Amino acid sequence: MAAWGKRLAGVRGVLLDISGVLYDGGEDGGAPIRGSVEAVARLKQSRLKVRFCTNESQKSRQELVGLLRRQGFDISEGEVTAPAPATSLILKERGLRPHLLVHDGVRSEFGQIDTSNPNCVVIADAGEGFSYQNMNKAFRVLMELEKPVLISLGKGRYYKETSGLMLDVGAYMKALEYACGIEAEVVGKPSPEYFQSALKEMGVEAHEAIMIGDDIVGDVGGAQRCGMRALQVRTGKFRPSDEQHPEVKADGYVDNLAEAVDLLLQHATK
Amino acid sequence: MAAWGKRLAGVRGVLLDISGVLYDGGEDGGAPIRGSVEAVARLKQSRLKVRFCTNESQKSRQELVGLLRRQGFDISEGEVTAPAPATSLILKERGLRPHLLVHDGVRSEFGQIDTSNPNCVVIADAGEGFSYQNMNKAFRVLMELEKPVLISLGKGRYYKETSGLMLDVGAYMKALEYACGIEAEVVGKPSPEYFQSALKEMGVEAHEAIMIGDDIVGDVGGAQRCGMRALQVRTGKFRPSDEQHPEVKADGYVDNLAEAVDLLLQHATK
């Protein structure tokens, strides 16, 4: 593999995944990953542009940012690209009235949306809300539509909380796709539109940007398909087998965000 | 389409699906489908051999047969091919110790099986038991195994109860397959081994047998792939679009089991 200097040359913008990179979530709000608070601070003091690009769909942006600020992170709502507000815009543009299978924490992002007489289903990481009854209700709504529309906020397989691995929305999206014989529209990583909107918001071209994430497929593979570079951190849901993934090879593997920022500050801004 | 006489010639054995053909399940035990009690009785009085071939995995065979007998059906445990006892045999043969994600009603079928220190996951139609917690537990067991084995009792998309359509085990099987990046082993329709065991139990060759079911893919398509003929009833989960299914064409469509039995008694036994 080429030296870091070559791999990081010309990077002007950094996209940071949140869960598994900044912190591990959990029942009590979770805990920051060692070194990440300082790493974000150093990055923001540098000449590099920073944007947080998350698939978090259990919490509103406000709630997520509040939680991270309490953990010491320098982050504000305007710096976060999140799937719920992006979905809310899409629903308005297309005149869609969703049946929402989402966590209560994110419902406020859909406050302005008409949910009467639904003509689509929106599914997000509902956590405990993924009861049989709630899934069956969403399924029945879809089966009653002539042209069923299912929008999924991300399609992650799982994420890591302090208590261990947790099933993510992608698993439940697959369940509804199979039961209804349909294909969902994904808003969030690894959708190219989603990465591109984050790039646009930070004013950086894909070839000048690098993604840092713990998900070899959703973060690394997705960003690379958009022409970005991508590093995988060995925190969060990282598993050693990711480094031998049959389809995706990161531009580099680092122990954690702190190491990634060390390397970026050393090589990218020259 | 050929005349019924030609389509049913040479049939010696009839495989009957249960849910959606004999009865629609429901919270109060469900209700027999009009004409089905008499149709089963007439079939059993004929020269045709009969076997019940179900993917029911919420109830033990004993419980299912008890419920059907109370509704007036002439049926006994020995006449039923069901996935739970078949799975129990497989587990014993292969020395597998399952983590069971199943309905309490079917747990007795696994009474003789060692479930300590699990080295596989068995998933059945758990109904309300498909909570997020239970799904996450099964997911974590699989992720901790070096070679994850997932056995699914059927892979139905949905079935019909008196209250409406209900998500079936297949949707949850797909969720775990996706989350873990694995493929489940299916015990039940449309697995060829499963149909063949039912044929063997009734002592009839595939070309002499006909399946009657409400599931165009699991019943009709599965039976046809084994060399049987198959009729779809317009009861249970049947939907008009099934008659234009892009991949599966039944050997005939009938309004209900009563009509199927009328035709069989008229044409098959000549």
From TrEMBL, chains A, B:
Record-level GO cellular component terms: cytosol; nuclear speck
MF GO annotations: inorganic diphosphate phosphatase activity; metal ion binding; phosphatase activity; protein homodimerization activity
Cofactor list: Mg(2+)
Record keyword Ion transport present: no
Reactions listed under catalytic activity: diphosphate + H2O = 2 phosphate + H(+)
UniProt superkingdom: Eukaryota
Gene3D superfamilies per the UniProt record, alphabetical: HAD superfamily/HAD-like (3.40.50.1000)
Cellular compartment(s): Cytoplasm; Nucleus
GO BP term, example: phosphate-containing compound metabolic process
Keyword tags: Cytoplasm, Hydrolase, Magnesium, Metal-binding, Nucleus
EC number: 3.6.1.1
Main location: cytoplasm
Function: Phosphatase that hydrolyzes imidodiphosphate, 3-phosphohistidine and 6-phospholysine. Has broad substrate specificity and can also hydrolyze inorganic diphosphate, but with lower efficiency.
Family: Belongs to the HAD-like hydrolase superfamily.
Name of the featured protein: Phospholysine phosphohistidine inorganic pyrophosphate phosphatase
